[in-house]
Design a protein that fits this description.
It is a single chain. The protein has 122 residues and is an alpha+beta fold. It has three helices and seven strands, in the order H-E-E-E-E-E-E-H-E-H. It has a five-stranded mixed sheet. The chain has a two-stranded antiparallel sheet with strand order 1-2.
Amino acid sequence: MPKRSRSRILKGWDACGLFRTRACLPNNPVLGSERILIVLMIRLARFGARKQPYYRVVVIEKRLARNGRSLEIVGTYNPRTNPATVDLKRERIEHWVGQGAQLSERVGKLLAKYPVSAPVAA
């Protein structure tokens, strides 16, 4: 039996994105419509060079690696600027939290520290 690629595994999501059928998981002898819960997290993924961190705020499965394949990029965070640069897509974050995604501790602190700014009049 050939191995299934990672991209094939991710195609088994249902409409809301929180469940996956067991038949889509690799090395599973049980084939059927049994569903399992997949926990989604909104957390930071590190990018940038050595000693020059730059972070993306991503929606990703909790069990995947820090810089694994994410479902969506919902913001950026650059701690090296003075003051730190934070760009968050709050509508998308609210959407994913509504779907059941959990915020990491650091992303929760970023949301609290950098509230929605009032529009600047030109």
